[in-house]
From TrEMBL:
UniProt-recorded name of the protein: Doxorubicin resistance ATP-binding protein DrrA
Domain named ABC transporter: residues: 5-234
Alphabetized Gene3D superfamilies for the sequence: P-loop containing nucleotide triphosphate hydrolases
EC number(s) from the headed UniProt entry: 3.6.3.-
Keywords tagged on the record: ATP-binding, Hydrolase, Nucleotide-binding, Transport
Signal peptide: none
Molecular functions per Gene Ontology: ATP binding; ATP hydrolysis activity
Entry-linked PANTHER family: ABC TRANSPORTER ATP-BINDING PROTEIN (PTHR42711)
PROSITE patterns on file: ABC_TRANSPORTER_1, ABC_TRANSPORTER_2
Listed Pfam families: ABC_tran
Length: 309
């Protein structure tokens, strides 16, 4: 089956010579959630803007559902829902009219049942007759999502959808995204909250300086690149790491009541057995031991740092 979003060597150069996209290639399968991660200025919004027809690429090509984003832009755009970063809404219009109007822009007939279902799904039904200016920032963000969903798109772009939203609303939105995936909607998410990607994404793409650094299944990425940390809680605190343990690159934690040892599971050996033997030889008594996997955020920071000269 052909990918629903296909990007080949896409480029965007602005006047003055700044290259925002430097030959991006990407394939996204129908029904998956792809998290697009990158620092500010990495090219995330430019890529989404190009795919959604907001800006015109200067090279390469891309298709949405087989429709070229330039030569077949009307058909491609009809398949797309976009939740932008900016809260660009008519402040004096009612919520329900705002959503109805967006559906009409795509030539869709009025469907009161669908509109009600979307508003209820986003906890906006009770606010349907409120004017936009009366809503909180989080509720306005929900209206943007409702606008993006009202014409029943097959591909949904979420550009920082939970910016300025409190934790409770953010988790509600994660549930909405999971529900959309269950309906077969393909979702491309950009976010500064890496825990979002870790919680809901199937695959992760990392972009920096207009280039894709990697695209990989989230679980495989964390297994391949994640380090583990062994935390050793001591019965008696230390004021420094004993000289005999210097080779293990240990670090003190918890006011000297614990030692942390970082290791790579991909290596031939973790060194844990030798470390425990060395601790016993030093007469250190252990109270507890636990291991922790590196988070996606730590992996992301490491990738971007490696790409920075």
């Amino acid at each position: 089956m052909a990918p629903i979003v296909k990007v080949d060597d896409l480029r965007k150069v602005y006047k003055g010579g700044f290259e925002a996209l430097s030959g991006v290639s990407l394939s996204i399968e129908e029904g998956e959630i792809l998290a697009l991660l990158g620092p500010n200025g990495a090219g995330k919004t430019t890529l989404i803007s190009a795919l959604c027809g907001i800006t015109t690429p200067t090279g390469g090509s891309a298709t949405i559902g087989g429709h070229d984003i330039v030569t077949g832009y009307r058909a491609a755009r009809a398949m797309i829902g976009l939740v932008p970063q900016e809260l660009a809404l008519e402040p004096f219009e009612k919520v329900i009219n705002t959503v109805r109007f967006s559906r009409g822009l795509f030539g869709k007939s009025n469907d009161p049942d669908l509109i009600e279902r979307i508003l209820r799904q986003l906890s906006l039904w009770d606010k349907r007759n409120s004017r936009i200016r009366e809503l909180s920032g989080g509720m306005k963000r929900r209206v943007l999502i409702a606008k993006a969903l009202c014409h029943e798109p097959r591909v949904l772009f979420l550009d920082e959808p939970t910016a300025g939203v409190d934790v409770e609303l953010r988790r509600d939105m994660w549930q909405v995204v999971e529900g959309l995936k269950a309906q077969g909607v393909t979702i491309i998410l950009t976010t500064h909250y890496i825990e979002e990607a870790e919680a809901i994404a199937d695959r992760v793409a990392v972009i920096n300086k207009g280039e894709i650094l990697l695209v990989e299944n989230k679980a495989d990425l964390m297994a391949r690149m994640g380090r583990k940390t062994l935390r050793i809680d001591l019965s008696e605190p230390l004021d420094r790491v004993p000289e005999a343990l210097k080779d293990y690159d240990l670090e003190l934690a918890g006011d000297g009541e614990a030692l942390k040892y970082h290791y790579d599971t991909r290596g031939d050996g973790t060194g844990i057995t030798r470390l425990l033997q060395a601790l016993a030889k030093e007469g250190l008594s252990l109270r507890d031991i636990e291991t922790r996997q590196s988070s996606l955020e730590e992996i992301f920071v490491g990738l971007v740092h490696e790409d920075t000269p």
